[in-house]
Fold:
Amino acid sequence: MVHETILVVGGAGYIGSHTVKYLLEKGYNIIVYDSLVNGHEELIDQSAKFYKGCLSDEIMLEKVFSENKIDAVIDFAGFIEAGESMKRPLMFFENNVGNCIKLLRIMLKFNVNKIIFSSTAAVYGVPKKVPITEDDEKKPINYYGETKLMFEQVLNAARTEGLKSIKLRYFNAAGAWYNIGEWHNPETHLIPLVINTALGLRESIKIFGVDYDTKDGTCVRDYVHVVDLAKAHELALRGLLNGIEGEFNVGTGKGYSVKEVIDTVKRVTGKDFKIEISERREGDPAILVASPEKFFKTFGWMPEKDLNEIVSSAWSWHKTQLETFKKK
Ligand code: UDP
Structure:
């Protein structure tokens, strides 16, 4: 049984709340800090201690650090919509970079020097080759990816001030576990949208572009089950506490096209629904598939769940939420 105390910033979000539950199962003491702007209080496990606050609120953050003896921080807090980042770049830079720097300053002031940071495949932009390895060129094509890459660089620079970090570059998180599923308002992500269509909450699903240079013309992504991601955080955390640092892709190494995702949803749910062919969405690279080798070599483990399990877990969860969704 472990006893370290971990501060999970953004622990009321989709990936954060799964990780909190998984870490609690493993015996960690958990403190959640979340503004609840995008997070949901009901997702926070009752065994975690909770502080409501924004990353910009230095007084509140200092209170958290002075009231608790924290061993390491996991930072999930951040704006994540790539499309929105193109419309509101200042908001993205301010929160994803500026406010996260405040967090680092306060951490170091309280002698906490270990952090796991939620980064993204978006740091790579349009990859020159797939699967993508960690040292491939990083050339984001949206401000979301730009802010995440910039903060990775801040973390690297802060090593001279004693900071130790692991950056996890997530590919496409999806699926449901612990009775927590993926939903955003408004929803833009493929898997929840297709499932909502299968549930009859939408008339059709749009495919954004069928003329990409891929196996069937539609974009290919690497979908990772959210509970696999939660496990990846625990492994990374153990590693960080034992002196490992660096950046890691967290993906499966397998890519599925938009059409394949839709076909999987049709097969798993037994529902047929209308598909519309639409224009390409701005800022979408044709293929994003991770090489999970570095994570595997360092931690001896890689994601276990495939697209079928992602879709079937999401389907089961979405069905239980049908009445709630109808009201949204
Ligand atoms: N996509 C689509 N129709 C939709 C939503 C998404 O064809 O209604 C495509 C999108 O263009 C991308 C893939 O599905 O190629 C995954 O998109 P998502 O927004 O889920 O994740 P992203 O890869 O953008 O982080």
